[in-house]
Queue: 4 jobs
Job 1
Amino acid sequence: MSDKYDVVVIGAGPAGYVAAIKAAQLGLSTACVEKWLDQKGGVRLGGTCLNTGCIPSKALLDSSHKFAEIRDHLAAHGISVKTPQIDVPAMIARKDRIVDQLTGGIASLFKHNGVTAISGTGKVIAGTKVEVTDGDGQVRVLEAGDIILAAGSVPVQIPPAPVDNEFIIDSTGALALSEVPARLGVIGAGVIGLELGSVWGRLGADVVVLEALDEFLPMMDQQIAKEAGKIFKKQGLDIRLGTRVTSAAVNEGKVEVVYSSADGEHTEHFDKLIVAVGRRPRSEELFSSDSGLTLDERGCIFVNDFCETEAPRVYAIGDVVRGPMLAHKGSEEGVMVAERIAGRQAQMNYDCIPSVIYTHPEIAAVGRTEQELKADGVEYKSGVFPFAASGRALAANDTDGLVKVLAHAETDRILGCHIVGPSAADLVQQVVIAMEFGASAEDLGMIVFGHPTLSEAVREAALAVDGHAIHIANRKRRK
Ligand code: FAD
Ligand code: NAD
């Protein structure tokens, strides 16, 4: 096997595998080095996203949503069922089958596109070379025309709550529980805390979420965050803001958590404790000191807008570099970098990356929040449409939440869209497309939307920007 490639990618997560496939499609000989092993010792593709992130968490969110629907929401439709039971091992096995299918799918795509998967740990050494150490400690050196680093991220650990993978677990452990914990503690009311707290809460766990900050979801538009907070409270998620965990110790099969808040010190006992306080880039031991690469203050590999590192012909993409830790952000960077290596003019619009929290209802956003626009002194107008006024949401008995569209006060160009509500992930994508085409709120309001759809709420919010909504009483009226 040749050890010379046009492109060597390190990491086969959604950033790396997409970059590798795209590079191969563009006619470049491409290898992708991955250290994750499957149960038989073979190379396991797909990274965090497919194995322990996006896909398995969504599989469990969908399973638990169906369970909660049957238990709590069918009576309203006139449907009665006997008390539903959850078979946790069967639910986890379904999730594992989906993961296997998708990771196997990446292997097929590699084969189809002619990408060589190489099992081992990759490290960049000087002169666009990659040193690969396999599971047996054998070392080989690959010569690369260009290198793409896509090593991803790992969960942040905190000293008061060391993960033991049995009682105190991270997100990976929380995707593989064998039974529903009666009492579940979660440290961190971020994306993972809310999604995995929802999974086990829907299945019957009594969930307490301990969040250090005083504000709930501070990066989200605050109107949406407040609305979401109310909905989660109604669902029984006990989110305690402004809490500082000082210790978590396992005692007689329970985790004893001590935390302080404005009203003093508290002790709680949980069957499991999930630590979900963020992720950090996996940038250590990825390159030699003479490779020319540098890290920023957060430990991310330093890159410019085109994902070029400070070492010539070495690029870095995905969670290992600045920006939101989202699968689609890394994948798009992968496409951009592969195209630039192939000599094309490619760039990425970092202002138009959607983000979603897959609770029910979902929370989705693109662009600027109202508080960001205020802070930057941008003159804006906003339009809001509640799902309670949507015929389709009412028909589905799913009326919590709202759509909010923000547009520039003078140009009317859409600056952001924030949604908490049913199918928010898919709804926000419509505004992402509109924003990519530089649409105004008026443009969005002039488009015909099928009826009855949840999408109509997006159009109505766009119309509401100038007081033209049809199905709510407008606050401001225009001639
Ligand atoms: P990763 O997916 O982490 O892949 C990096 C790969 O590199 C890994 O396979 C690793 O083994 C390999 N590697 C590392 N170092 C080396 C080395 N030296 N040599 C060889 N191989 C190496 N994002 C979303 O957009 N939507 C979601 O719904 C979503 N849900 C999530 C749920 C959970 C529970 C978690 C934990 C994350 C979720 N994310 C989600 C985030 C998403 O998983 C990450 O943003 C994404 O996986 C990052 O892609 P990546 O390719 O940069 O890194
Ligand atoms: P996060 O940054 O979303 O949330 C972490 C939360 O923990 C924050 O609210 C933070 O204030 C809090 N926190 C930090 N230290 C704490 C402490 N000592 N005590 C109590 N609270 C503390 O991080 P996450 O939920 O771990 O997710 C990690 C990354 O994975 C995120 O960046 C996210 O982008 C990605 N992810 C995305 C999705 C999705 O797109 N649906 C799903 C899961 C994860």
Note: The chain has 13 helices and 22 strands.
Job 2
Amino acid sequence: MSGAEAFQALTIETLPARLGGIDALTSRIGTNAAQWTVKEVGDGNLNLVFIVTGDKGAVIVKQALPYVRLVGESWPLPLKRSFFEYHALTRQEARAGVGTVPAIFHFDEAQALIVMEYLTPHVILRHALIEGRQLPKIANDLGLFMARTLFRGSDLSMKAKDRKADVGIFADNVELCDITENLVFTDPYYETELNRHTSPQLDSLVAELRADRDLKVEAQKLKHMFAANAETLVHGDLHSGSIMVTHDDTRVIDPEFAFYGPIAFDVGMLMANFWMSYFSQSGHEGAGHEKGGDRESMRQYLLGVIVETWSIFRSEFSRLWHTERNGMLYDRRLFEDRGDPLGSEQALDRFIHDIWVDMLGFAGVEIHRRILGLAHNADFETIADQDLRATCEAKALKFGRHICVNRERIHSFDEIHALAARIEKGIVA
Ligand code: SR1
Ligand code: MG
């Protein structure tokens, strides 16, 4: 299929004939396209995802649709998000290393499709956590991934000219940013058509949050930061559904929301999804991996993952600060080169402190939008008992409000996790 042809959505039936002549596929899965098996497995909100298997192997074919799959054709969405996903993946691989994202074999811009590595036996991290599986490597892998992609895409590392050119390219990812700007920072905080929540159980808490002036002011402050602080190339949708895992391997997928935004946005979104998993665990008691595992040990595991992810992120970011700080910010000529290494340490401490504070804010609003907005997550949605689900969600909502509004006065995970435990046990109403 040539890139010049008009866009046409693939189907299970048409895919072999349409892609059967592409060397990037045939060389990996076999030339006899008539024998390929095709399965559509997309369970995200936006795209088609096919596993295509031939006699030599399998690949993933991901194709964007000209609308939001979750909602339907009434919500058009440009195909160019596939372009941003492809270019974000190539940059992430260059910055974080081969094996941190799926390998890319082919990109067709007009057909908005990417052919990439079929990750197997990987599963979506969110599903693994719902099952009660404890993955030993995720904190290390994700801490490193964030530090390396976020540092190396910023003015701490890139040449100003290159970075500005890249900011220009990704600035066109307007519609996907618009989704986040509305769905994360605004819609959850007022009554609008696409929102939903577990009702009537959460009605009074939702009304309370929507009347909460301090919370809404903070959410808008964070939105401003999201829209105006083009600090680095962020993944833009780094939740546990955008990560695939095995016991030994972690891959970050799906960066179609990538744009130049705040470092803390990716970190906060990821942490929020670990905290939501924490508060959802009691809804999965007795189910899943090895009869559900022990959900208290799962909760302790999740808090440990959060602390370790941050610690790895912080130490790798600091290492890069000392070894790769060759961009235009915090110029070495002002500090190390004139015998003032402490000046650079002071700047680093402050830089990391700002990420910490903003991370807590972004995490708080991400938690809220997954419970009050359009796009919910399976951690809570798969809890069949509505009363139990609402109890879990209410705890997460209160926790999210606290870390968002009080973020400038929160200094450690010890205090955050002491609060989380009190909320979880019902000690704090
Ligand atoms: C309409 S898209 C809803 C959500 O799905 C994506 O994964 C993003 O998280 C987006 O906010
Ligand atoms: Mg996605």
Note: Residues 123-424 form a domain with the Aminoglycoside 3'-phosphotransferase; Chain: A, domain 2 fold (CATH 3.90.1200.10).
Job 3
Amino acid sequence: MPSEGDIVTSSKTMRIGVIGGDGTGPEVAREALKVLAAVAKLESFSYELQDFDFGGERYLRTGEVLPEGAVDEIKQLDAVLLGAIGHPDVAPGILEKGLLLRLRFELDQYINLRPVKLLPGVETPLAGKGPEDIDFVVVRENTEDLYCGVGGFLKKNTPDEVATQTAVFTRKGCERCVRWAFEYTRKRNSPKKMLTLVAKTNVLTYGHDLWWRTFQEVAKDYPDVKTDYNHVDACCMWMVKNPEYYDVIVTTNMFGDIITDLAGILQGGMGVAAGGNINPDAGGTSMFEPMGGSAPKYTGQNVINPIATINAMAMLLEQTGQTTAADRINKAVAVVTGTKMKSQAAGKMGYTTEQVGDLVCEAL
Ligand code: IPM
Ligand code: MN
């Protein structure tokens, strides 16, 4: 049932930025936009798109990753859909730092939300596990840790070279993420209703001590949520052995990056895994993306799986208040993976990229 709040939201025109990006990014983004058009019609809400040509091609042409004023322009939007970035002719780090990480930081998208759900019909490498076993969510802090770019070289390119790369953790950055994760766990309201902190308190006795203390303190405000702690190495083991144990995980930026690739393969891989870079504050702009890269070798072949990007679109709609539209997409995707697609791997789906997008639209 829509509440009064939902009705107000749907009468306003949503403004969505689209960064198709590199490689197969534009192809998968196109399918997600097709699904958006179909669901907007069914749910009668209106939206406007603003296209941005950021990515490797533009960088090679102009030497610019993000043009002057781009961040301010994006801040005016309600949300952003990102296809993929990464170009074979651009050195590693330039686009990642100059576009993806810069947007995460400057838009203060302090939550990286990565749902891990095995959909019907999707294959997992875990023997004997099915959709009822693989259904958890990772909440990754998204603005601190080793990602801050704090560090440097001393005596570079000499035998005495020193390199430092410092992990930065702040009480504010940690607390807002942990609190959001508790709220999320409460709202998700699964029978487990459990939030697991994943860190490495036995070694990282400063930064992760801050996380541990903050977690304990914030937990007092959520007596209805069960709390739990795993060291990150043990978490990797449990995630493979007993994925059904987890409900919601909250973790630091670097560990979150690593464990969500592991989690991503458990749910069927990069063809289906999606994530959101979320600024949950009022007026914040969030950005949603498939977890996979630009897959240059499949570019332009109409074989890449658009499901992850369609899932990212569902997350975008959920975040912007179009929850019934989001549910509708999620259900349609489950029908398509469960009854139509042969595989989630590029070129093996039994359908082209465009056909998978059409199937989701039909199933809506
Ligand atoms: C991810 C990616 C990025 C990250 C890279 C591309 C900077 O791996 O979104 O998980 O490390 O966060
Ligand atoms: Mn990653």
Note: Residues 1-10 have pLDDT under 50 and may be disordered.
Job 4
Amino acid sequence: MRLAHKVAYVTGAASGIGKEIALVYAREGAKVAIADLNEDAAKAAAAEIVNAGGQAIGIAVDVTNEDQVESSVAATIDAFGTVDVLVSNAGIQIVHPVEEFTLADWRRMLAIHLDGAFLTTRACVRQMKAADHGGSIIYMGSVHSKEASKLKAPYVTAKHGLIGLARTVAKEGGSFGIRANVICPGFVRTPLVDKQIPEQAKALGISEMDVIRNVMLKDTVDGEFTTTADVAEIALMFASFPTNALTGQSLNVSHGWSMG
Ligand code: NAD
């Protein structure tokens, strides 16, 4: 039980990568708040954990909404006493050539990925400092935190920005035992990616199989997708690492797509 007595608040945990992290954390003994825009799916994921003998709550939150982030972190503290681990994971993807992006879509992307990371960090760091027990802050970056791809200007911009945020929070949190790190996955077959395959095929004028083989997995060492289990294993390591030796880092889990 690597997370016994720990409380984790995980955003976007009703689906995909976030859900797998919530399940793994619960299996390792954590009490988990599943915070997601999709309230029904968040409650269903929490019920899955409770039915398996774990502890979890499902909470509705839009991570771009200051009041909702504050109240959902407060609800987590009410339910479980504190917050030891934040996984800022909620995210979406919108693909267009840069000149076709509307300002509204650009702002929406930066709001979900960056405002969401800031607001959840602020709420959780305040609690970690007040409770004086340190903590682990984990941002769901991407290989796109370090590399660029066509059609993804706001996503690449936001994911690069998370590395700057993590490094700053790591410096500010050091003397309080608060660590901050970024996970940088390659492509993982989740609803977020399944939606992009036909969109990219259309935008690039190629087949869906070509999008998978020649765009998404082209630079991996073995042509394989990363899995939610791969990412959750790294999230477990960052959450359970015992010292400040591992902070301010960004770790690729991408079948070698990025080695930087
Ligand atoms: P997903 O679509 O399966 O899950 C995303 C979840 O976020 C959904 O449950 C959705 O309801 C929630 N969400 C969306 N907007 C929200 C908001 N404003 N407030 C709260 N919740 C919101 O996607 P996923 O693939 O599991 O992606 C999770 C994270 O991993 C994202 O940050 C994504 O950028 C990142 N990522 C994904 C991949 C991949 O290939 N799937 C690769 C690298 C990084």
Note: Strands lie at 7-11, 31-36, 55-60, 85-88, 135-140, 178-185, 250-253.
